[in-house]
């Protein structure tokens, strides 16, 4: 199974991860994740093929249910 990755999308919910480092226009700015603790359970939910390849969105990083259904990478 091949997993398609968009570094601007959360690997859990498929919504925008708002990562400043994934966008060349904002790559020099600090990311939201520098000031938010990422829940260990959220990290455990990331498929192994996507680990360290794309950032979580703020909602998934806090291990909260998705606000709207996104399309998780397949």
UniProtKB/TrEMBL annotation:
Molecular function terms from GO: helicase activity
InterPro entries the record matches: Cys_rich_CWC
Pfam families in the cross-refs: Cys_rich_CWC
Highest rank taxon of the organism: Bacteria
Keywords: ATP-binding, Helicase, Hydrolase, Nucleotide-binding
Protein's recorded name: DNA or RNA helicase of superfamily II
